[in-house]
């Protein structure tokens, strides 16, 4: 930031409003994180040369709303640092950080070219009693209602008159009492089904605002939003969206049925420009050079320096062959999870997991012993379902995990998945056993009917058959079919259509309810396991 020009602006604001201009609602971030942001920003270059010196207001949640702001302490201060440093290093704009409503008066806004709503949330357009003491706001009216009316009008006129606004992440959910605010941005926040890595479709590879991604789809970890009315592609130009083929479409709280999950869009408002993106929750987003370039391009476009089309584009990419959508043959209500040819929809180590002879094959070698159990994980989470899968085990131990949790990102110790497992092995000891290692251990041995109470206490309440006789229905080293039925707190395991075990745990509040589906190869001696004809139906 150019200190002289900021001093001049700060002097003007102080004289007019009685407050300083460079005032942030967030908390300072650790110096080493600011260093990472600065290092990332130094890799970014402005696409366009500013037509004239630009000034951008970086707007934070005001102090009286910050205690209840869900993003205080992390993405707000990180975003503040990123947008400030971007302006300083690229010279594309002069950043002014503030959370003072006096800077939202029409007279004050006239000194800016664009506004970045930095996760600012709550009804920030509504003045407080303290705000009424500020000369700049008192000049707008005699009471809160009159002042807010003028502030609303001035904000909309600022944009309609040819300026711009960049809406970051949760800022789209602010001012819910103001319908025109929602209409301005073109959508309402209805939830965040994903806080994980997702696949992103670059809808217009050649669009100037998407230059950061080099025309290629990508993956990113963040808190990802779902949007509702007035969201309408006929009124927006969507730039980025969820790729359902490479994203967990079994996440809870997904409400849309049309797979239309926009992640960034632009629209025109009068003569002005509006940019909205879901990205901006996780702090590491702000030290990612690619994302900083994306943000800078948006700000330059909002200022009017970077030219890019913003007219509505109702069409969207057509996705075909989305894994997990193809109906299973002769099994009404089921879908196919394995196409018989590729590992589409599955993630795992390609040195261990391959497709051989039309079957998913997990194999370990004596020259590369495993240090831990390895998994092939299905892209979509499951909750209440029936799974059918044929398996053939030549040696070792394997299993099918369901409702499992992944180890936290960045952690490398321990198994990738932890959760219930329909087990099987070459010795026969673990065939048909429901185990949850390392949490609850054996939940139900082969032949057992088990009940788990509200304290987590396990009780064997009956039998589904003699364990030795049940083992006889399994054909060693040949194809067998595992069936897992999980509905609420009731779980049934079958092999070759014979019940192996049954668990009722609907009273246990700690029972696994929702999670990942995965296939396992076990640490130990070299082994080989195969799976095919994998079909799933959800209840």
What does this structure look like?
The structure is a single chain. With 539 residues, the chain is α+β, with helices and mostly antiparallel strands. It is 17% helix and 31% strand. The chain is built from 9 helices and 27 strands. The strands form 3 sheets. Strands 10, 12, 13, 15, 21, 22, 23, 24, 25 and 27 form a 10-stranded mixed β-sheet that branches. The chain has a 9-stranded mixed β-sheet with strand order 2-1-3-4-9-8-7-5-6. A hairpin with a 2-residue loop joins strand 12 (353-356) and strand 13.
Outline the fold blueprint.
Blueprint: H1 3-17, H2 31-41, E1 55-59, H3 75-90, E2 94-98, H4 106-109, E3 114-118, H5 135-138, H6 144-160, E4 164-168, H7 179-185, E5 188-202, E6 218-228, E7 237-242, E8 262-269, E9 272-277, H8 289-303, E10 335-336, E11 346-347, E12 353-356, E13 359-363, E14 374-378, E15 385-395, E16 397-406, E17 417-418, E18 421-425, E19 434-436, E20 441-444, E21 448-452, E22 458-463, H9 467-471, E23 480-487, E24 490-495, E25 498-504, E26 516-521, E27 528-538
Helix pairs in contact: 2-3
Question: What's a concise summary of this model?
Answer:
By secondary structure, this protein is of the alpha+beta class. It has nine helices and 27 strands.
Residue-averaged pLDDT: 94
Helix content: 10-25%
User: N- to C-terminal separation?
Assistant: 57 Å
Q: Please provide the count of β strands.
A: 27
Please outline the major beta sheet.
Answer: 10 strands, mixed
